[in-house]
Amino acid sequence: MHLRMHLQFFAGEKTERATPKKKLDQRKKGKVAKSQDVNTAFLLLFVFTILVVFGNSIKNTMTSLFEHTFTEFIHWEVTENTVHQVFSGATVEAAKMLAPVMVIAIIAGLASNFLQIGFLFTTEPLKFDLKKIDPIQGAKRIFSIRALVELLKSFFKILFIGVVTFTVIWIYKDEMMMLSFKDTESALAFFSRITTIMGISATFTLLFLSVFDYVYQRYDYEKNLKMSKQDVKDEYKNIEGDPLIKSKIKEKQRQMAARRMMSEVPNADVVITNPTHFAIAIRYDEEKATAPYVVAKGLDQTALRIKKIAKAHRVITVENKPLARALYGSIEIGDVIPEEFYKAVAEILAYVYRLEKKV
Q1: In a designed cystine with 268, which of 6, 68, 281, 302 is the match (CB 3.0 to 4.6 A)?
Q2: Which are the contacts of 33, defined by CB distance < 8 A and separation ≥ 6?
Q3: Where are the alpha helices (DSSP H) in the chain?
Q4: Are residues 134 and 87 in the same domain?
Q5: Is the per-residue pLDDT at 27 higher than 80?
């Protein structure tokens, strides 16, 4: 009993790598290995790149908008039409400024996901599931090992990115202290440049950390998908079918094929026998084939059944040991007689036709 319990324990232990089918099933549910840090790093990198490229244009648009507001709009009379015109115009200008950033952000999000998991569209994660709002399950997630790992990851991200950004500020601290002696445009240009440097530096730091996060996510994903030996066996049974059921199906198929074969024996012209081990039922029909063909064949007990049916339907049986053995091993049911056996089979059929004429 103890041995059986041990075997059951080891059979239930998840030690096997997930099968391709299980991975595909999980993928259809939206459960894949991906790092959100990769998405964030790509998003920041693309956005800061677009800000560098279009930053001057955005600045000019904003400056123009403010100048227009304080030189022209401020003198307008406040009416429904003027308010609508001001807000609609400001909205259009803001859309022009933000459009490149929004488009590149969408592209970055799609690209980072595609690089990690390829193309995947599923609505499974959106379906309502009571387990997601189960307080017990929620508490387990909060106090799980994975939650602790995520906390440590967040701490290290803050630490590394904080060190990088502080280093950038420290490098430019002297120039920053002298900003009080510069004009507004120079100060804004300085802060714009420093912000871009800090952003890109932090982005590359996050991108570096995201590599380790992705490796961890892959490891954790594979670990959670592991299967027990019994799981693998059950999945194989579901795919291939239970071996016992499959054997029964095959046996049924053999029985049906045997019945169909036996139903053709009465239509045979002759049965060639061994005489005890082999039986080959042959028919010649010019409309169906250009040569005689086999309608049934059998070994031992099947051969005896073929001979009994032949006898009951007055189909002539001819004993020819070498021919019966050769035909059984070289031809299947429904096939025409091979050319090398034409002469021997023709002689037997001629003999059978003579007997039938005498009768």
Answers
A1: 281
A2: 116, 117, 214, 217, 218, 220, 221, 222
A3: 2-12, 20-28, 36-71, 80-117, 135-142, 145-171, 173-177, 184-225, 229-240, 243-264, 301-312, 321-330, 342-358
A4: yes
A5: no
Give the pLDDT of residue 140.
57
Cα–Cα distances in Å, from 233 out to 5, 11, 214, 230? 19, 10, 31, 5
275 lies in the same domain as 351: yes
Contact 309, 266 (CB under 8 A): yes
Q: Which of 339, 264, 333 is CA-nearest to residue 293?
A: 333
Same domain, 177 and 317: no
pLDDT at 59 (0 to 100): 79
pTM above 0.70, yes or no: no
Contacts of 73 (CB under 8 A, 6+ apart): 86
Per residue in 263-292, pLDDT (tens digit) is: 888 888 888 888 778 888 888 888 887 888
Cβ contact 107:45 at 8 Å:
no
Indicate whether 180 pLDDT > 60: yes
Both tokens of residue 278?
């082999």
How high is the pLDDT of residue 9? 40
How many folded domains does the chain comprise?
A: 2
CATH code of the domain in which 328 resides: 3.40.1690.10
Whether residue 10 is contained in a domain is answered as: no
Does residue 13 sit within a domain? no
More confident residue, 321 or 31: 321
pLDDT at 152: 85
Question: Does residue 12 surpass a pLDDT of 50?
Answer: yes
Domain of 333? 262-358
The token pair that represents 26 in the structure block: 């999980």
